[in-house]
From TrEMBL:
GO terms for molecular function: mRNA binding; pseudouridine synthase activity. Residues 589-710 form the Pseudouridine synthase RsuA/RluA-like domain. One of its GO terms (biological process) is pseudouridine synthesis. Pfam families: PPR (PF01535), PPR_2 (PF13041), PPR_3 (PF13812), PseudoU_synth_2 (PF00849). It comes from the Eukaryota. PPR repeats lie at residues 61-95, 166-200, 201-235, 271-305. This is Pseudouridine synthase RsuA/RluA-like domain-containing protein. PROSITE patterns: PPR.
Length: 792
């Protein structure tokens, strides 16, 4: 090979002097020989030739090094490529564009995104050394390492510097947008691509579809998918699966199943992603049987179910209460060789409500071992570990200390959803983490407020995560004043921005209400129920008394609207409702703001409900609620005699779907305060009862009813949480659920405190008149007792 190199070198350097010709012939010859090794993928021989040049006192030039680097990079030898770059610097050989492209490509394939960015930083001022391939490799490396935001920043920097970018560079950047759910940025890149006179290909449009799907824009996704034939592109498997993923956002499981079948009709190969998208869509829509069916069909199609598909099926079974089927799916996945990390296994145990202490303990031991080995690097895994530990009711100082040590330093990398999950998981145990997470939130909120453009596009989710984090810190008794103040400020700014925005488009649900107003009034007049009315009207706020049997928000039942709701009345021009007209308030049409209602109240119960006319008032009250500053007091009549010494119920609450909530050692942390007012008897069978005043620190679904049943004192005439026998006997003297929210204390927008108290409804007052005190006197508890608990 060396003789061939010398001959080739002679042909190139025939104009040099004899002494120069000998040296140059060697340099060119070796370079050509190394290039031949590169083409034959013989990187060890290329290294040997380069070493031999140095032994022969022949100084390698940039072409010799570049060919050797390219040969090493092609075979994944990034360490050797890095060493060669160092040798070039020592020998003062300046790398060229191809050299740097080889370096970036080698580092990128191995996920060494830090080295990639270091190389680009060194040469960012030399446009002659940069090319589109290097840019695409850098973005791809960052995306694979879940550092997509750094990759996009790099792409945008090079774009501003005027680097000529190719279709590959744009496609890689758009794919990075899909990882971060940045669908608007993806659309901007598509526009920039056309401005640069580059023709988008099917890869481009697939990346756009994936970005729209990741951003929850299912309408735009399906529209673009439908336009592909008009753009002269035939959809491939990626096009189908990305569109199916988008349909999860709208619970369009039938459409996802149809697209899954269309893959086969298009003579394309169904893959695990298409099956996974079907299973996830069925899970989101509550179609647990369909989800399990698709999971069982995967082995028939010679596909091994992946973790995502199995987890979606488990979630579907858990949401429908089919825990046994979910456990079977988990066991089947283990038997098929599916390897779960400790975090994934603990997630599955928490979702399936596994209460076996041996299994939970073994899972925690495995998690502790993995943490000690530093196997948890992903923030999603870390937040899952916090959440799962809390849901399983498992506590360990070693576990908490290790979790705190691993997660505090990574807080800037957490998403807002991961932060709120972790805070609820750490509430009460991870004190250091809770303090550090609050500082991180304060920093993020200050960044939002100082930004020239408030991030309204993602505000709904962000608002939920911020308030959830404040609630978790309040529950743990660790909410800092700086965090509370930051939350109040950002909610004030967001509320003002939304109130200033003209919001004219009503939701489909409320449009139907308004369109059928006469029908609604007619039904109400026919049924003549006890009507809701406003007990207190404050600027931008209403305190409404809800009768039993009424919903707070309108909902559909059997394909028809349930019109007996406070929600429908707030949007009605009806004097019958005795509620001030609210159709001019945009918040009453916004499902994302729960139509202005601050909280709900169970259908069989009665009591006070707060409603806001403006976003600013709604957000101000939401902050007070999350900070534990709103007092909600309840009158409750329970079975049995509650111990006078019991002042508090601390029991986790777990619920899914339409099933009753239940309290146990697992579930979401929940706290209720109670005070015994009177022990007595009632009814012909001399049933023992307790008149109780209750307030709550958390607002879990059916929390009071579930908590009281948990301690053996269910609410009288509660068909969901009391025994069937007691429900039948209660009917003789108690016409409905004996729970009434009688008091709400809060502050208005001016900071003035309002303490609104309602009288007992007539039906409950009559029930209490029947109660005889155990001392023998007739009960006179017809007025609300003083409240106690949080905020009292």
């Amino acid at each position: 090979m060396r003789s061939v190199a010398y001959c080739s070198g002679a042909a190139i350097s025939n104009e040099l002097t004899p002494s120069e010709r000998k040296v140059q012939r060697s340099v060119f010859g070796y370079s050509l020989a190394i290039s031949a090794c590169q083409k034959l993928s013989k990187w060890p021989q290329a290294i040997d030739l380069l070493d031999f040049m140095l032994l022969q006192a022949v100084s390698p030039d940039v072409y010799s090094f570049t060919s050797t680097v390219t040969s090493c990079a092609a075979d994944g030898q990034w360490q050797l490529a890095a060493a060669l770059l160092h040798d070039m610097q020592e020998l003062q050989v300046l790398p060229n564009q191809v050299t740097y492209a080889s370096f970036v490509g080698s580092f990128g394939k191995e996920g060494k995104w830090q080295r990639v960015l270091d190389v680009l930083y060194q040469i960012q001022s030399r446009r002659d050394l940069l090319d589109s391939f290097s840019c695409a490799a850098a973005v791809s490396a960052c995306t694979r390492a879940t550092k997509w935001h750094l990759g996009l920043r790099c792409f945008q920097t090079l774009q501003r510097q005027g680097l000529t970018l190719s279709e590959v560079g744009f496609n890689t950047a758009i794919s990075a947008c899909s990882k971060g759910s940045l669908w608007q940025e993806a659309m901007d890149l598509l526009h920039d691509m056309r401005v640069c006179r580059l023709a988008p290909d099917l890869i481009t449009y697939n990346a756009i579809i994936a970005s729209l799907a990741a951003g929850g824009q299912w309408r735009k996704t399906t529209h673009l998918f439908g336009r592909l034939p008009a753009l002269s592109f035939t959809p491939n498997v990626i096009s189908f699966t990305s569109t199916m993923v988008a349909l999860k956002a709208c619970e369009g499981w039938q459409d996802a199943v149809m697209l899954h079948g269309s893959i086969r009709h298009a003579l394309l190969q169904q893959n695990d992603i298409s099956f996974g998208a079907c299973i996830s869509s069925c899970e989101k829509s509550g179609q647990w049987s369909e989800a399990v069916k698709f999971l069982s069909e995967m082995p028939v199609a010679r596909l091994r179910p992946d973790m995502t598909s199995t987890n979606a099926a488990i979630s579907a079974c858990e949401a429908s209460g089919n825990w046994d089927l979910g456990i079977s799916s988990l066991i089947a996945s283990e038997l098929m060789g599916q390897t779960r990390s400790a975090s994934s296994f603990m997630w599955a145990l928490a979702r399936l409500h596994i209460r076996d202490p041996v299994v939970v303990h073994a899972a925690m031991v495995e998690a502790i071992c993995d943490m000690r080995k530093h196997l948890f690097q992903d923030t999603r895994q870390m937040s899952t570990m916090w959440w799962a530990g809390q849901m399983l009711g498992a506590s360990s100082n070693v576990y908490t200390d290790l979790m705190t040590e691993r997660t505090v330093a990574r807080l800037p990398d957490f998403t807002s959803k991961e932060l709120v999950m972790s805070l609820w998981g750490a509430a009460g145990t991870g004190n250091v983490f809770v303090r550090s997470a609050q500082q991180e939130w304060v920093h993020r909120i200050q960044t939002m407020l100082s930004s020239s453009r408030f991030p309204m596009d993602d505000w709904q989710q962000m608002r939920s995560h911020i308030l959830g984090s404040l609630w978790a810190c309040t529950y743990a008794g660790m909410a800092s004043e700086a965090f509370r103040l930051a939350v109040k400020n950002v909610m004030l700014v967001a509320g003002q921005a939304l109130d200033e925005t003209v919001f004219t488009k009503a939701s489909t649900l409320l449009s139907r209400c308004l369109a059928r107003g006469q029908t609604i009034q007619h039904r109400i007049q026919q049924e003549k129920p006890c009507m809701p009315y406003v007990l207190s009207e404050i600027p931008d706020l209403l305190v409404i008394l809800k009768p039993p049997g009424w919903e707070v928000e309108a909902r559909w039942e059997g394909g028809e609207m349930n019109y007996r709701s406070l929600h429908s009345l707030l949007t009605e021009e009806s004097q019958e409702s005795q509620i001030p007209l609210g159709s001019s308030a945009p918040i009453f049409f916004d499902a994302g703001a729960t139509f202005g209602f601050l909280h709900r109240l169970d259908v069989p119960s009665s009591g006070l409900v707060l409603a806001s006319r403006t976003y600013q008032a709604y957000y101000a009250l939401s902050v007070q609620l999350a900070a534990g500053e709103i007092l909600r007091g309840y009158n409750v009549l329970t079975h049995g005699w509650v111990n006078h010494q019991r002042k508090e119920i601390n029991a986790r609450v777990y619920w899914r779907g339409g099933l009753p909530s239940r309290s146990s050692g697992q579930g979401k942390p929940s706290r209720s305060f109670l005070k015994v007012i009177l022990h007595g008897y009632v009814g012909v069978d001399v049933t023992s009862v307790t008149v109780t005043a209750v307030s709550i620190a958390t607002g879990r679904r059916h929390q009071i009813r579930c908590h009281l049943a948990h301690i053996g004192h269910p609410v009288c005439k509660d068909d969901a949480y009391a025994s069937q026998e007691s429900g039948s006997s209660d009917w003789l003297w108690c016409p409905r659920n004996a729970l009434h929210r009688y008091r709400i204390r809060f502050r208005d927008m001016q900071g003035l405190e309002h303490d609104v108290v309602s009288p007992l409804p007539v039906d409950l007052a009559e029930v209490l008149q029947k109660v005889t005190s155990k001392t023998g006197s007739q009960s006179s508890v017809c007025t609300p007792p003083p409240a106690m608990g949080m905020g009292s």
